[in-house]
Prior knowledge:
- By secondary structure, the chain is of the alpha/beta class.
- It has helices spanning 21-32, 35-50, 66-71, 87-96, 103-106, 140-153, 229-238; strands at 5-6, 56-60, 79-84, 109-113, 126-129, 161-168, 176-181, 185-194, 200-209, 215-225, 243-251, 257-263, 273-280.
- The two termini are 29 Å apart.
Amino acid sequence: MSKAKKESKAEKVVPGKRLSITEKYRLYEASVQNPEADIKFINKVYLDHYGKAPLSLREDFCGTGKMACEWVTQGPKHESHGIDLDLEPITYGVDHHYFSLTEDQQERVKYIKGNVMDPHHFECDVVVAFNFSYYFFKERNDLLHYFKTVRKSFKANKKGAFFIDLFGGTEARKPSVESAKHQHHTYFWECERYNPLTAECFYSIHFKDHKSGIKYRRVFSYDWRMWDNRELMDLLKEAGFSEVKSFWEGVSRDGTGNGNFKESNKAENCESWVTYLCAIP
Length: 281
Ligand SMILES: C[S@@+](CC[C@H](N)C(=O)[O-])C[C@H]1O[C@@H](n2cnc3c(N)ncnc32)[C@H](O)[C@@H]1O
């Protein structure tokens, strides 16, 4: 979401016109997801820390489970579980990602319709919570409970790693709209509200179809609390993780992020950023 630009143009909104379920997830994935880049990053951090490749993945808040499906294409020993409360994205993911896998790959992916707050009785090398989904937890105790649940899931596996992403920046904490143009659609990421006293925020995703000119508003909306890097590091440690690594993206010549994340505790206070934390049990 960081590479989007500020919006300026007029728009055509047709009240009541909605995207089909298939279209909304197709556009969402095309606009915000890059599981190949996430997996490359996870593999590198895990290899640097443990000297071996991670084989099993648990994708929390998996939505369509695109990453869980991508994970098993890496090799015959790779396994994954995707957990989400909502059957709608899971169904899209089964139809569009799971069924695109070979039979052997399908046997190594499991979708679970469930709550990430509940204990799940399987071991994984890596747990991820991406696209800021844990921002749903507005209370400190709830987020701490979730982090403790993940920490306990590594009980028998001493070589675990928990990855989350986060975003922020001076532009992120005020009403604003960013957009990114794709071949057939434009993606909009709008901060509709931010409450500086509670850090609660309301974000929406809109899409504009280039052919019809129609803008579909609030295709996805998120009522979140914006957590910051320092409080997340503190909470992860409080949840029992022994080490928390923070990362920061390198900058290319034009001043935008270059997709290369390095471990760091120093960062420029820029307008808009996305980064990762990795917690070691
Ligand atoms: C922002 S989407 C993220 C989807 C996906 N991880 C991605 O990278 O695009 C958030 C997802 O979290 C799911 N969700 C919210 N609370 C949950 C919970 N407590 N347990 C499991 N899934 C949850 C929602 O159903 C939704 O599909």
